[in-house]
Specification:
With 538 residues, the chain is an alpha/beta fold. It contains 19 helices and 15 strands. The strands form four sheets. It has a seven-stranded mixed beta sheet. A three-stranded antiparallel beta sheet has the order 4-5-6. Strands 13-14-15 form a three-stranded antiparallel beta sheet.
Length: 538
């Protein structure tokens, strides 16, 4: 009697087989490492050799761009393949024996109990074209803490085009000055906000030189991330004019955590006078403690990137041993590239999430100044004024002694700066009318508001003035004007969460038309959009 073919011990092609063929699929797909790399040919004199991945020598920028495009086309396919398939257990999760009680329990009862104990957390969305995938976000939150797939990553972000096609964030790993300059010119020149980070060797001294002290430079825009592995550059001429232009342009905001120390390294070793330095910790504290009415806790002490990501982006940031103890003098492997890219991308996403939350505060505090200006952190605070006068905002500042960023700083107290009493500007009658409606609505509603007063005020202005569109309302409410997307979000939030009346025709033509296709698919306003669309069809 012959045994099944998969269990046969004799195979005419390979002789005796000592074990049956495995039915279990592999935990990881094969990785295509070259898709990450942007490099010229490597000189034999270079003692630090990158991974042997069959890189071609780029003769000119056109060939470089052609090869880069091929790698990026592969990235989107591999990103989806790299996630463990359904039913495959993560390697870090121990295999547990099947619990008989779980098998015999009523699934419907278990589902109801889980729904009661855990409320679904929604992903943070911004007005950017690239937002986190709701499916990947929820999948990561369901993973066991500390296991594969439970961490926040740049790979979760995507842009969904009107035709339904998905575009992922691209990663450029550059190991030469030539490729660094090319990527800066093609993809980052002209960006107004960049995430920024540096990596260097642990316990290094100033005498060790630039390769050990500025080993890896990371910058990120909403759509792309660049890793400039300076430690692997063949020549000692590290920095080109385009990267220097970007870093020294005050019109380009560079957002990061403990970022002033990173910029000091750029100045010390490369002579770059960085401008537009934005410390995310300042904005994080302004937003957090304004909400909690704890302005005395606002100070210049840095807040770790991992803490901000967990709090604002609602997933943990990986900071395991493979990141902290990396040898930055060697070429990065795939995991190190991914983690380094996520560090820079966290900066750009945190900036936009926190800025959106700051603009939603009522009253809205000023945005913290660039760190190189060494100015106090300003806070908006409502003060008592004479009866009949309009509300005025005084400025409260955090003015502490500026110490080197590398040293720990003691939290400083808020210092109230006296402001001379001035005649308040006359408010627009349409805003005043909206405030009256807002107060009437508050008095009628017994429960707490589901949206901010700013959202309700914006809604009432839009609802009562048919000649005002979101662009006009943005200019009416503030100088400089609010972002139009902020006004659109205010109106939609008020309608969706407070169940306020609206004109379906105006909603479609004036408000929903500003939303990207990505916003629809994320689901926040899906029901509202469908209601307006149904009315159009009937």
């Amino acid at each position: 009697m012959s045994s099944p073919s998969q269990n046969q011990l004799w195979n005419p092609n390979c002789g005796i087989r000592f074990s049956p063929r495995s039915k279990t699929p592999p935990l990881y797909p094969l990785l295509d490492v070259p898709r990450f790399l942007h490099a010229t040919s490597f000189n034999a004199r270079n003692s630090v050799q990158p991974m042997d991945v069959g890189l071609e020598d780029f003769g000119d920028d056109e060939q470089f761009e052609l090869d880069a495009a091929e790698w990026f086309d592969q990235q989107d396919v591999l990103a989806s393949a790299a996630r463990p398939a359904q039913g495959i257990q993560d390697p870090q999760e121990p295999q547990e024996p099947e619990d008989i009680t779980k098998v015999t329990s009523d699934p419907s009862t278990e589902t109801k109990e889980n729904a009661k104990t855990e409320k679904e957390v929604l992903p943070p969305l911004t007005s950017l074209d690239y937002n986190i995938s709701s499916e990947l976000f929820q999948a990561a939150r369901k993973k066991k803490e500390g296991t594969l797939g439970s961490f926040w990553s740049h790979d979760m972000y995507q842009r969904i085009h009107s035709d339904g096609s998905v575009q992922k964030v691209k990663v450029h790993y550059c190991t030469s000055k030539h490729s660094m300059e090319h990527v800066c010119q093609q993809y980052f020149l002209g960006e107004k906000v960049l995430g920024f980070d540096l990596e260097w060797m642990a316990y290094v001294t100033k005498a060790a030189g630039p390769r050990q002290n500025v080993s890896l430079i990371q910058i990120a825009s909403p759509s792309r991330i660049a890793l400039f592995h300076v430690a692997l550059f063949i020549k000692d001429d590290f920095i080109g004019p385009i990267f220097r232009q970007i870093m020294e342009d005050e019109g380009v905001t560079k957002a990061g955590v403990n970022i002033q120390g990173d910029c000091t390294r750029l100045k010390t070793f490369f002579g770059i006078e960085t401008k537009g330095i934005f410390e995310l910790s300042h904005l994080y504290k302004v937003v957090k403690y304004s909400k909690e009415n704890k302005l005395n806790l606002v100070n210049r002490t840095p807040v770790a990137m991992a803490v901000q990501v967990q709090d604002c982006l609602r997933l943990p940031l990986y900071k395991g041993p493979s990141v902290r103890t990396s040898n930055w003098m060697k070429a990065l492997n795939t995991a190190q590239i991914s983690y380094s890219a996520s560090d820079a991308y966290a900066g750009i996403q945190l900036y936009h999430v926190l800025e959106q939350e700051r603009e939603n505060l009522d009253p809205c505090p000023p945005r913290p100044e660039f760190a190189e200006k060494r100015l106090p952190i300003k806070m908006a605070e409502v003060v008592d004024i004479d009866d009949g006068a309009e509300i005025d905002l005084s400025i409260t500042e955090v003015d502490d002694a500026l110490e080197p960023v590398a040293e720990a700083k003691k939290p400083q107290e808020i210092i109230a700066v006296p402001k001379p009493k001035t005649t308040p500007k006359e408010r627009d009658s349409r805003i005043t009318a909206a405030d009256v409606e807002l107060e009437l609505y508050r008095s009628r509603k017994n429960k707490q508001l589901s949206v901010s007063p700013s959202a309700l005020r914006t809604y009432y202005i839009w609802h009562a003035n048919k000649n005002l569109k979101p662009e006009s309302i943005a200019k009416l409410l503030r100088e400089p004007p609010l972002k139009t997307n902020t006004v659109v979000t205010y109106i939609l939030d008020a309608i969706a969460f407070e169940k306020l009346p609206f004109s379906k025709e105006r909603l479609r033509s004036e408000v929903l038309s500003f939303l990207s296709a990505n916003s629809f698919l994320q689901g926040k306003y899906k029901a509202l959009m469908q209601e307006a669309q149904m009315m159009k069809e009937t």
